[in-house]
Amino acid sequence: MFSKDFPEKLRSMVLISDVVGKKVKLKQHGKEFQGLCPFHNEKTPSFTVNNQKGFYHCFGCGAHGDIFTFVMSNEGLEYKEAVRKLADDFGVEIPIISKNKIFTEDINYKICQSALQFFQDKLWLYEGEEARKYLTNRGFTIDNIKKFAIGYAPNSFDALIKFLKSQSFSDLAIKNSGLVSVKENQEIYDKFRKRIIFPIFNQKNQVMAFGGRILGDELPKYLNSAETTIFKKKETLYNLNIARKSIFDKGYVILVEGYMDAISLAMSGFENVVAGLGTAIGESHLQKIFLTTDKLVIALDGDSAGINAAKRFIDIALPIITVDKNISIIIIPERLDPDDFIKKFGQEKFQELIDNAINISKACWLFALQDLKIDTNNKEAILPENKAKLQKILKTKSDLITDKVLKKHFIDFFRESLFFLGKNIFSQNNNNIRQFNQKRESFNNIFATTTLSTISRQETNHQALSQNNKIIKEIVALLFKFPQLINFKNDDFEFEIVELSSDDYTAIKEILYEFITEFNVESLLKVAIFFERAKNFITKKDAIDIENIIKTINYNNLKFAENKLYLLLLEDLLIKINQQSRILLDKITNSNNIEDSSLNQKISDEIFNYKSQVEKKILHLKQDNF
Length: 626
Hints:
Elements lengths: L5 H8 L2 H5 L6 E3 L2 E4 L11 E4 L4 E4 L5 E2 L1 H9 L3 H11 L9 H25 L5 H9 L4 H6 L3 E3 L5 H8 L4 H5 L4 E3 L5 E3 L4 E7 L5 E8 L7 E3 L15 H11 L2 E4 L2 H9 L5 E3 L7 H8 L4 E6 L3 H14 L8 E6 L6 H8 L1 H9 L2 E2 H12 L12 H16 L4 H17 L12 H14 L24 H11 L21 H16 L8 H7 L6 H13 L5 H33 L6 H29 L1
Parallel strand pairs: 12-13, 12-14, 14-15
Antiparallel strand pairs: 1-2, 2-3, 3-4, 4-5, 6-9, 7-8, 9-10, 10-11, 15-16
């Protein structure tokens, strides 16, 4: 048998689009997937799947459910059979437990529910007066107290134990509940004493544990229930049961370190907030969050502990984030925590922090500069040795990323940032430093994707390939002759994800990549199939040109072909640099942010030097190989 909470854990590990996608051809539209309903005949898709909400719904026939109901309906299985099948299909091990353990889980939930009633009652009795005053001083209203089911544990070693025994719970059951501590002689006593009590709920709104804040100066300040069969700190987020609707509505979640911070933000209107339970935010927390939303903003204290927590968090997050799942970081200023900041500066100022949160790529860069004590405004202090150390640190960060496309752009960002570090593109005049930094930031934003491996794609109309630009035609021909080149990768390019000088060219490249991946080598002569797939981008004349180029390729040396592809990609890159530099210089020239004629010249010099690097690569490659 499996535990009662295993289906919930399985639901949090398996995307419903992956389950439904085995039976229904789905197409993504924003945050949802659409397809033809498998439960009734239709020609226009009315069947939707939402990973974040974890359900499917058909607007035609009304079919609705989750991963389990879908498998039950499609394959005629009972609930337990559907759970086992899904676990097997997705390689999730089912922890087999005894009937005794299932009984223990049931008892734990019942004990927690009884304890919740006990704590809530105590808050409103005479012995809870100090706790009520504390809550009032912290801005809690009666409605807030009821909403979060807050209670009070009296200053007694056995008040809760006596109450639970009066409810017919055995000593063993109470001992296993996580609500008591055990002496060396095995005697039990109340774990929570003289504490404000914050119940911790699962997503089914079942209370499964408690957190407590001491009234006074004793330590520890915060205390949680011990882990039990129903409560695991590393898998639990405080307030998720309440915050889910607001997270869906707002499209993002705010993550804080403690439940007082979460409650304070929620009371101030930021209801899409969840919190850890005094333990460091871990991989399981992030995976649970990303099943609810694609956007996470983490708010950390502005003291040294908060900074260190942010650095640890980045290392945990980098392997998990993807192109679609993003994280931003807030370091609360003035060494405050979120609760104190809200009380001191108010809701609007905290919203400003959210709006200006630092994305995780920028945070990696800033923390690396901080760790090496590099002053970006002091050119003399930016030594080659420090840049080398900086590059090494940034490489360790990018190496953690598993999403290929995202990793590529992180590498691009780090490379660009290193390239401009110490370049004299801003004034050293202290009176104007703020303006010049704004100008530099504007420059970096415009030039943000200009690197040896990618330049921002330009908006182009679908046109026949230019007769004067044979690069994309030669690339297509070369790949037909040497299909192994789809795996081409060096320090500057990775063919699978490289972006070419126009959207059309990149689209052709992506269709070509998929085509070669799909067909075996012997079938690659079926170029007509490729031309049919790419007909929106390639004219008949273009197709004839490509076929003629294929016929002229009379060499079979793969290394030579790799160098040829590298040369073509560099030449295309040069085109992109010229395109971008014109746009960039126009924007800088027309900018009114700062009046300094020398700045434009310095930036122009940077672009020229960058372009020269690529031209030298092309020249050396031609001299050595062609």
